[in-house]
Each structure stands twice: as structure tokens, then as C-alpha cells.
Write a structure and sequence with these properties.
single chain, alpha/beta, Hypothetical Protein Ychn, Chain: A, five-stranded parallel β-sheet, 6 helices, 15% strand
């Protein structure tokens, strides 16, 4: 028991379904924090979250400016050419100040710390992807049933 009277978290499984910076980084930060606390961690990338682990796309993850209420921009401003690139540049500079690494480096760091990384088979099939489309840190492409098996006893988080 910890100080609040609850059993400590021993295992987390994090589902990443959005491929924007604000969809990917919360999962990476939470997985990294879990590993730093000695908590077992699994990342499961599905739908557009796959962009964070696709070798040719992972270095170009951007901030979504249209339809993102967290940007506090009217939709019309979000569609202005260059707005997403501007917002992405600004956010990346702020993350650099906090020593938060780029996506590729962060994924390598988390994987090296013992986090398992999986791609969703249904999404991989839907987007006609293959194992060699992904970065080397992806442990496997698995169906959701297998993800649930691996997540037995885990807190499941959805970002």
C-alpha cells in the first residue's frame, strides 16, 4: 500500500490513436515516467498514432491546428497555410527548453528503458503497411486481443 491507501500501479498499457504532437507526446511522457518509476509499460499504436512509429513519418509529426480546441484558435485561422508549421515549430522549441527529445529519440529511449512497443494489426492492414515500414523499436504487430492479453493486470490509458 502507498500513502493514499491504494495498491501502487505496477503496469500501464497506453493506447496512442492520434498522430499529432499533442496526441503522441502525452503517451511518450507517460510511458517514460512509468519506466522511471519502475512501472512496466506498453505502448500500443493504432490508427493515425501509427505515424509516430512509421520510419518515414516519425520525424515530421505536427500540431493539428484545425479542430483542436486546445489551440484556442478559430477554425478559420487554423486553415491558414503555414499555421500548423508555425505552431509545430513553436511547440518543439518549448519542448527543447524542457529537454524533451524529438519523437524518434524519445521512442528509442523509452524502448531501451524496457517499454514494449506494438502496432495494431487492424490499422496496419487498413493502411496497407508492413513490418519494414516501422522503426526498429516496434516489437511486433499484434491484434487487439493480443494487446489485451499482454495488458492483463495493467491500467489501460488512452491518449
Amino acid at each position: 500500500m502507498n500513502t493514499n491507501g491504494h495498491e501502487p500501479i505496477k503496469k500501464v498499457s497506453i493506447i496512442v490513436s492520434r498522430g499529432s504532437l499533442d496526441g503522441v507526446y502525452p503517451a511518450l511522457i507517460m510511458a517514460n515516467g512509468a519506466r522511471m518509476e519502475g512501472i512496466e509499460a506498453t505502448l500500443f499504436f493504432t490508427f493515425f498514432g501509427l505515424d509516430a512509429i512509421i520510419d518515414k513519418r516519425m520525424d515530421n509529426i505536427k500540431v493539428a491546428t484545425v479542430g483542436n480546441p486546445g489551440m484556442h484558435l478559430p477554425t478559420l485561422l487554423g486553415i491558414i497555410p503555414g499555421m500548423s508549421a508555425f505552431a509545430t515549430s513553436k511547440m518543439k522549441k518549448e519542448m527543447e527548453k524542457l529537454d524533451i527529445p524529438p519523437v524518434r529519440e524519445f521512442i528509442t529511449m523509452i524502448h531501451d528503458a524496457g517499454c514494449d512497443i506494438y502496432a495494431c494489426k487492424a490499422s496496419v492492414d487498413m493502411f496497407h503497411l508492413k513490418k519494414n515500414d516501422f522503426c526498429k523499436e516496434v516489437d511486433d504487430i499484434i491484434p487487439v486481443g493480443q494487446f489485451y492479453e499482454k495488458s492483463a493486470g495493467a491500467e489501460i490509458l488512452f491518449t
